[in-house]
Amino acid sequence: MLAAAPTARLYARPMSGASARGHGHSHGLIDPSIKRSRQGLAAVGLSLAVLAATALAQTAVFALSGSVALLADLIHNFGDAATAIPLGIAFLLRSSRAERAAGLFVVAAIFLSACVAGAEAIVRLIDPETPSRLGAVALAGAIGFAGNLVAARIRTRAGTRLDSPALIADGNHARADAYVSLAVIASAAAVAIGVPIADPLIGLGITAVILKITRDSWRTVRGHGHIHAH
Questions:
Q1: pLDDT tens, position by position, 56-107
Q2: What does the domain layout of the chain look like in residue ranges?
Q3: CATH architecture of 30-229
Q4: Suppose 166 and one of 11, 58, 103, 122 were both cysteines; which one would form an S-S bond, judging by CB atoms 3.0 to 4.6 Å apart?
Q5: For 144-184, what is the HEC assignment?
Q6: What is the pLDDT of residues 189-198, one digit of tens each?
Q7: What's the pTM?
Q8: Which residues contact 75 (CB under 8 A, 6 or more apart)?
Q9: How deeply is 230 buried, as exposed, middle or buried, from its count of CB atoms within 10 A (0-12, 13-18, 19+)?
């Protein structure tokens, strides 16, 4: 009977591969953390690809049209895509502290994009320039709408599943950005009917929406941090 004890202890160790899957759960803390890291990286990488493609397509149209409303949207989309970098690093490190820091970086990036977009809109109000190729501008707005909705769904679902405030904030941010992109279509329509001043004014409106997104994202990240602190 005494000789059976080491054998029992041996099988009490965490199993891997097919044995672990058959057992139904993981015995070690490292297994769920690695799984969470991989799922987070997959979500961040996929949303980065979607938003980068969206922003690149919009950049090509801006180079032809000169629309300030489109510029504000594409700047914000590039900034949104860039937030995937610190989020990816945080998931790679499997660090909750790094994840919270990434959330703060997301908020800062959103605020910076608002400042750049607002400044450009003000410059165009002082020195007006009527955008051209309005059909392409409207198409770029539609691309921005679709790209941001897809990225929002990827980030929000993953953030909820993984309990990641940074991913949730970024997902909410992308969802709001989708509706911001619709303003680009409105700008093209307004210019087409002979109201070119609408372009920089809508650019300022987009800036105001981005600032609200900044505040909401800050509350999401900060509020979740307080919950964990307690």
A1: 999 998 888 888 878 878 887 887 787 778 878 888 887 778 877 877 887 8
A2: 30-229
A3: Up-down Bundle (1.20)
A4: 103
A5: HHHHHHHHHHHHHHHHHHHCCHHHHHHHHHHHHHHHHHHHH
A6: 888 888 888 8
A7: 0.67
A8: 113, 116, 117, 120
A9: exposed
